[in-house]
Design brief:
This is DNA-directed RNA polymerase beta subunit. The protein is α+β, with helices and mostly antiparallel strands. It has two domains: 49 residues, no CATH class; 66 residues, Roll (SH3 type barrels). The strands form two sheets. A five-stranded antiparallel beta sheet has the order 6-5-4-3-7, covered by helices on one side. It has a two-stranded antiparallel ribbon with strand order 1-2. It is rod-shaped, with a radius of gyration of 29 Å. The N and C termini lie far apart (86 Å). The mean pLDDT is 81.
Length: 124
């Protein structure tokens, strides 16, 4: 019997009886691309959920917007609009300087309709 035949037999016995795979998804110390892609997707979803503030009623929204208008307070307005990556659009920050029937105007030239608003908070 050759030396190679004995070595392969010893190796087979070792893997069959003694070696316990821990199920790690690694190859030479690096995570597999499928695993990294899944981690990135989960992280993106978590960030998206954390940015979404609770939906307020029209009464609450109107009250806070009128408070900003009456008392010159700065508000942060989150709209129900999303960008191309399905992320919540950036908040509008400013003081309400005017309004029409359903349209509000901020001091930074930004405008929005009442029906687009998800959440309003007054900044102190």
């Amino acid at each position: 019997m050759s030396k190679n035949a004995t070595d392969s037999q010893t190796v087979k016995i070792f893997f069959d009886r003694y070696y316990h795979d821990r199920g790690k998804m690694k190859w030479q110390g690096f995570y597999l691309s499928d695993h990294t892609a899944a981690l990135k997707k989960a992280d993106k979803k978590l960030k998206h959920e954390n940015n979404l503030r609770p939906k307020q009623t029209i009464e609450e929204i109107t009250k806070l917007l009128m408070q900003s208008y009456s008392y010159n307070q700065i508000v942060k307005v989150q709209l129900n609009t999303f960008d191309t990556n399905h992320q919540v659009a950036d908040d509008l920050v400013g003081e309400v300087v005017g309004h029409d029937e359903n349209k509000f105007y901020l001091d930074n030239q930004k405008t929005f309709h009442l029906g687009e608003v998800r959440n309003v908070s007054v900044l102190v």
